[in-house]
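Quality-control log, excerpt.
Job 1 of 2 completed; input and output follow.
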Amino acid sequence: MKSTYIIFAFSIACALFSAGLYAQTATPAGDKATTVKSKSDPDVRAGQWVAALNLNDAAKEARVAAVITAHLMAVRDWNNNHPYTLTPEGINPITGKVFSKLERQLIINSTIPKTVHDDLMAGLRKDLTEEQVELILDKYTIGKVAFTMSGYKSIVPDLTQVEESFILTNLKLAREQAVDYKNIDQISVIFKIYKTKIEDYFNNNGRNWKQMYKNYADQAKAKKAAGNAKPAKP
């Protein structure tokens, strides 16, 4: 009788253990259906950007989204598979400063095959107008062309049409180059290259960039101080 009880108890224990193990390892049937993709996933971003164009053409939307997705994935994979350590440590020959991790990553990312960029631009232009292509490039760079242009208009007094055209041309060049870099930190470095060119242009054509920026900053501080000042008592 005692041995029968022991065998029975052992059977129950085994059954409970098996049930617990299954509960830990089994995947609920509805899990796959409820999985939500991250907003940073290439196909999600591509879909959102294309939707903003309001193309009203499902076939065209699918083609453009596929082109953008392929490009985003290529840029992401190149960045992830080519760590900054592939760029030797050293100094920037212009500044004399030691390269940062970001700069080293930027250097290795700049070796991405040219076809990655060319395929993106050709694919976009196959189905989109130039204005629509620019809207997509703005999505890649979170509107940095318009934002940066607005800053120059605030800083530079009496900006001429020639100056504005030079600025816009260079900011658009920065934007197109920047789309081949993975994140906003890398994109900002690319824009800084062209901002330096723009500021050198001012210095070489009768303006003083540092002085203009100082005047703008001083005016902004004075305006802020005036806004925070308490009104005098009557």
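Job 2 of 2 completed; input and output follow.
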Amino acid sequence: MKRIDNLLNSIGIRDQLTIIKIKYGLEIIRSELSKILFLLIIFVFLNKSIEYVFALSILSPIRCFSGGLHLKTNIGCFLFSLLIYTLIIIALPNIPLPIYIYYLLLIISFLIILVLSPVYTKKRPIQTKERYLFLKRRTVLISIVCFLIIVSISIIGYIEVFIIGCWVMVVQASQLIIAKKINWKEALT
């Protein structure tokens, strides 16, 4: 961390609050990249790396702006992420459902994400109306793009990948519902 302090000082950043924010951002990036790498290694061993990369590429941009459930420790976050991706990639796709049910789940989940987003947390409160609107617009835009990608995949015939995309949306919508309930309960206490 001393090297980061020296680097920031050398480029003229001396404000302590700015330095703290930059260090926090770098720590989050390091933590997320290591989590993504460890999960990739696990899914490579499970012969599901392509499915993992697809699920990650849909879930990450939506979750970045819409929010969701957050755990307090890095290991808790890693284990929860492993559970989520295992559900999305391995467990849930093994539930035999008619294709029209997947489309229905996709549409309902898409609408839930649009309505409930963004979800705040104690650690990352949304402090201004402008920030809320920014996150809302980004969530809507990214969700529409992801929705269209998932539907396009089904149209060209990659049904297994389409099903994973549907479960990504269902799991994210479920996280938002749970996170909203937690926030509502915390507001009452």
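Post-run check on job 2. Residues 16-45 form the longest helix (30 residues).
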